[in-house]
Amino acid sequence: MSGRPSPAGAGAGSLPNRAVCEQCLSLHPVEPNGKEDHRLRTGLRALCLLAGLAASSPAAAGDWKPVEKIVTYAISGRTGIELYRSIGENGPKIGVGRAIAYTDFDLKWSRNYVPERGGCTLAAARPHLVITYRLPKPKGTLPPETRPRWKRFIDGIEKHERVHGALIVELVEQIEAVSVGLRTENDPKCRKIRAELTEKLAALSQEQRRKSREFDRVEMSQGGNVQQLVLALVNGG
Q1: Is this prediction's pTM over 0.70?
Q2: Bridge partners, 52 (sequence order)
């Protein structure tokens, strides 16, 4: 499976596939003095296969909510630079580097394809979405002088990841909007409609990728929000 987003699977009756969208920040040593040659590099790995399951009863459009949860990984240290170095040693491996934090999601669909009058109508499409934010968490209690710096850092990182979560929710809402009510003629076995739906969802998936990458580009650029969060943590700014 490649690292590029794939269009949502429109078939019914298939096994649910795991959909993963990871927004990754590669870690590199940060000089305590915050020299200008420090760079933050980003990597994006999105493996988005949105599976479909046939449903026996329709669900109202928009009648769903995502499940959001936070999963932490342990780091150690008493100062900002020690905590950041520990992130570099213990953060989740993404590609060739490690991430500070990332967001992934598990998306399954219940879809009701109705063959009628020689054609096929997608009468209902209900998503089941779980978004997981993976964040670092220090072991034990931090010294008083480090606590506010860490809180500022982790609050900012979580806020960044939740924007990615919001983009995922937006994508799912758009998929729902183009799915429900879709109809194809001369399609008694509901095959053409799956191909047409897959084509529509490919465009939506590509746009979601573009938005996510543009957000990361701005946030992680030289002087961007994420870099400022890191420098404030390690330098005490």
Answers
A1: yes
A2: 109
